[in-house]
Amino acid sequence: MRLLHTSDWHLGRSFHRVSLLTAQRAFLDHLVETVREREVDAVLVAGDIYDRAVPPLAAVELFDDALHRLAGLGVPTVMISGNHDSARRLGVGSGLMRRAGIHLRTDPAACGTPVLLADAHGPVALYGLPYLEPAMVRDELGAPRAGHADVLGAAMDRVRADLAARPRGMRSVVLAHAFVTGGAPSDSERDITVGGVASVPAAVFDGVDYAALGHLHGCQTLTERVRYSGSPLAYSFSEADHRKSTWIVDLDAAGTVRAERVDCPVPRPLARIRGPLERLLDDPALARYEDSWVEATLTDTSRPHEPMARLGKRFPHVLSLVFDPDEGPARSTASYAQRLRGRSDQEIAEDFVAHVRAGRAADEDERAELRSAIDEVRLDDTVHEVAR
Length: 388
Hints:
Layout: E1 2-6, E2 14-15, E3 18-19, H1 21-37, E4 42-46, H2 57-73, E5 77-80, H3 87-90, H4 94-98, E6 102-105, E7 115-119, E8 122-129, H5 134-141, H6 148-164, E9 171-177, E10 179-180, E11 199-200, E12 210-214, E13 220-223, E14 226-228, E15 245-251, E16 257-263, E17 270-275, H7 277-282, E18 293-298, H8 307-314, E19 318-323, H9 336-340, H10 345-356, H11 364-387
Parallel strand pairs: 1-4, 4-5, 5-6, 8-9, 9-12, 10-11, 12-14, 17-18, 18-19
Antiparallel strand pairs: 1-15, 2-3, 7-8, 13-14, 15-16
Helix pairs in contact: 1-2, 5-6, 10-11
């Protein structure tokens, strides 16, 4: 059986305020075409279909169109809800959709009830484990504690119990949305540490032929049978080095897995550049990033004038600006009171100027202005004191 494993579509999400709907539509076009060209038997979507619980209408329309096109191909699709999705909303109409071959698994209580598909070698059981919030599902699943490993372990116990009651040697696949130990996170995943330690061991999936994971946005192989597809698009600059793809997974008669990556279309490459502003504007080696979405980190010791506008002239798609000045003189570890002791108001003011400008001290004209301002304050204090 040939499976296409994808996840973390995050329909409706933007990238630094740039809409990604066009890029997400291009990915779904690519997905449908891949299913057709590669003669895929079933599509697996391991959660975070939407970016938020109440998605914008345009995202819902994209999802609806994708489902109609997959159903039109006659290819079954199994989907689970992720931590970004509203399981209740996503699951509406699941009974009707099932008749069209779209299997939405959003109810934790149904973890042990598989979607049964068949190929020339017999049936395959596909179990959908939606994102399991420990505090909400602990009692329902009979988990000993409200932790991620506990509730996912309890759900997998139901999977293994169901498999044990089926014909010996039946092939099996699990879809799950979780942070599995050994996976590499990125900046764009929502933290799921509420409810105990976030990560769960890969061994929790022992007993099934393949675990199709969602949640982490980098495509990665934890074991030959436990993999993340990653998100089809980059959703943070921490993913600049990611190769965005889906998995084509072939499951043979014995349940042996063979997996191949299929690259996703890239709407625009990502680039992270770093250095003083003038070098970023003049360095010919950076010409290859002029058509990229750019995150620029400026290391100037003082903030340049209008850096975003100046960068935008060379890099028209610059989206993010970070200031990280090169370290100036080593700072004292003494307390604030200790650092002030014995110093004049003038010295304290000049130190403050150097501090806010990352080590660049006041020049002679600025010192004169500070001296004049301090003298005026002292004069005012003297006048008020005499008046009292």
